[in-house]
Amino acid sequence: MAYTTINKISDFFNALLLSGNGSDNRVISGVGFQPDFTWLKKRNSTGYHFLVDAVRGAPKTVFSNGTEAEVIQVNGLTAFNSDGFAVGSNSTINGNSDTFVSWNWLGANGTASNTDGTITSTVSANTTSGFSIVSYTGNATTGATIGHGLGVTPDVIIAKSRVSADSWGFFHSTFSSQQYMFLNSTSAVASASSVWNALPSSSVFTVGDNASVNDSGNMIAYCFAEKKGFSKFGSYTGNGNADGTFVYTGFKPAFVMVKQTNTTRYWSIFDNKRDGFNPTNRPLFPNASDQESDSVNYYHDILSNGFKWRTNATVMNESGGSYIYMAFAESPFVTGASAIPTTAR
Length: 345
Fold this sequence. Notes:
Blueprint: E1 13-19, E2 26-29, E3 37-42, E4 50-53, E5 60-61, E6 71-72, E7 77-81, E8 84-87, H1 91-94, E9 99-105, E10 112-114, E11 121-126, E12 131-137, E13 144-147, E14 156-161, E15 169-172, E16 179-182, E17 190-191, E18 196-198, E19 204-207, H2 211-214, E20 218-224, E21 231-237, E22 246-248, E23 251-260, E24 268-271, E25 300-303, E26 306-309, H3 314-317, E27 322-332
Antiparallel strand pairs: 1-9, 2-8, 3-4, 3-9, 5-6, 7-8, 10-11, 11-12, 12-20, 13-19, 14-15, 14-20, 15-16, 16-17, 18-19, 21-27, 22-26, 23-24, 23-27, 25-26
């Protein structure tokens, strides 16, 4: 049996490095496909995280490190094209001589109406890679359901009100019913029926009346389902040692996002492009506008079958700390993967 059904992983997710030039109408190529969701961040100085998708349409932008409502960023990411996207002169994503990273996901390159839930949604779903973008009009009613179009139960859901200044609702498959976190916050996991009212199913996710997931007005959600050899969504326990925890993913990661769940801590994103060698140590922080870090405190190795911390830094490897992660592949591990270590799942 094939290890993964995805023949070329970079056709579905790819990280791309950019150097800004400050010009308008700049075409960025090299993604390898027409993205439906692009997340952009300046590396060398502070700046907001720009998140743009093809369902809402460029240049409509939301920011993971804040609660702001969607803005029409006319000189931001202005269009998607067959091999990337176009940007304007906004210094946060195209400042002259600045450095940037973009993380790009393929949806369906189109949308469909979904009536599986009590609220009709507009969905761009890629069932091969397990990713969908879901637009819906919230009704602030507990128990409302929204169709996600994946055909399998999502492992991660990230939702945001487009019309109000509200937090980003975050669900992870390691959470129990009604547990939640906020992507824009350092807070630990919490529980409330007003956010995720029930666990998601293969067709819908269920929300409460909290504006982070069900505001009265336009909402957007990004849903991810695990696909063997391409994506992994799990948890691990830190060991507080410089010879840190190894986390088995079953592939060489291209993107890893980590958050400690049992205490207040930053979110962190690592990828395979910004260092390009081990140990890598350049996190960006989804909940903050901070520039890219370059510290031995964040050392880790990207391996053929997972990632391993080379630090006892609390943000990713506190002794006894509980962590969640989401990871996407550069290439699958196909040469006889061993059993998953007990420190990760």
